[in-house]
Amino acid sequence: MNIDMIFKAIEIASLVFGVIYIVMQVFQHKWMWYADLITCVAAGTVAFHNDIWATVGLNVYMFTMGVIGISKWKKLDGKTEKGALHIVRLPRKTAILSIAAILVGGALIFWLLTKTSDPAPLADSALLILTVFAAWWLTKSYIEQWYLWLVANVTGIVLFASQGLYWMSTLYFAYLVFAIIGIFNWRRKGQYVE
Question: Which of 14, 53, 55, 89 is the most exposed place for a label (fewest CB within 10 A)?
Answer without folding.
Answer: 89
